[in-house]
Amino acid sequence: MSVSSSRAPHLPLLLKCLNGKVVNPALKAFAFAYIYVVAPKIFFKVLKLAKKRELSKGLPAAIATLRNALKPSKFPALAAKLMLQINATEPLIYLFFKRLGYLHKPRRRLFVSTLVAAFLAALMHFPSFQNPGSIHGRQISLDLTLLVATRALDTVVSSALSRAGGSRYASLGDGALFIVSSALIMYSWFYHPERLPPAYRNWITSAASMDDEFISLLRDVKNKKVAYGEKGPGEYLLKDFCERNNQPAEKGSLYLNQPLSCECVHAFLTKNCELHALWRFARGFTFAIKLYGSVNFVMLLLSKDKKNFARKLLRASLNAARSSCFLGTFIALCWYGVCLGRNRILPRLFPKVPRTRWDDTIAAACGCALCGFSCFIDTPQRRKELALFVAPRAVGTVISSEPTPRNLWLERVTFAVSMAILVAFAKKEASSVRGIFGKGLQSVLSLQNFN
């Protein structure tokens, strides 16, 4: 028998192995990432068009979304390329370390091999996703980088705490992370909106239901463009606001009112701060239940398992109500925190400080600091997801988003290191990557173990 004929039977086996451990996972990664990207966009576009009674535009909008996600510069293509290279090069790196006699324990050798393979893959392919986003301010790639980086940091910290026996404090840590992150995000929403992703900023604006005139007033007071007791723009900033609420324009004048009355801040609904907070809660709850109720109901209908439908419907309704209570409380605490700062607490603790001083960032900062405590209404599992969701956006408010060569290089390295950590930890122990992101990493990124 010839040498070539003896090797021939191994070729189909090799091709099958490559398809099973390299090609198929990459295709699966593309498919999962594609669904992950397009499904929420289509759902919310259709929901928005339904509210405007323009459902005829739904199909063209959905087709445009489906086509756009197929571009080589989008996340699905990045996910596929990452998995293709990671799964192709990891066994080679593992074999290389084995031949060198480096890292004698197979499990540790596999961890380092995965780390190196993922780092090199991310370093190579991330620029194709990064550069198109940099044209419009680097927001697209920065959001993904911050998401991956905060998840990687959380994975390292939570794994270290777990080994040290500190996992029982994780729930309080999640709460603290959410409170701090929410404070940074809301402060930026008040005074530095350009630091937030546009879609996220617009969503907060819709949920908070704060009039544009008040936002402009707060920013102008902070930037010293207007001041209490001075004639000029401060006399007229709230003129349209007052007229829209059937009140004389004088009630919104910073010259005649030092400071503005809480009734004016409450949109003339009531003079009582507590009643206003309850009204804001009810309005926030109504806003949220439409969103969470729709999502939970659609997910229930799409479920293949139709058994115990009534019980599942009740559970979905309770989950939607709890999430809506959380958002309603978040909004109410933010508004009430402003009132506590400018009317209820600080003026009484510091009576010698001019009342107008509290409207210069301090009252708004009180609301920002207080709103995050709403997370304790939700379950520990949900609190963890909330904390990990807002943390990347909070980090984004304190770093530069200017697409300079140095920043783009730092972002590239940060993404590569973070992705390497997540993939390596997920292969070692999937549960070490917390939350939905960790559960989805095995399926969305199609990780394969090479033993």
TrEMBL record:
Membrane-crossing segments per the record: 29-47, 110-128, 169-190, 284-303, 324-345
Top-level taxon in the UniProt lineage: Eukaryota
Protein name (record): Transmembrane protein 135 N-terminal domain-containing protein
Keywords, ordered alphabetically: Membrane, Transmembrane, Transmembrane helix
Provenance organism: Australozyma saopauloensis
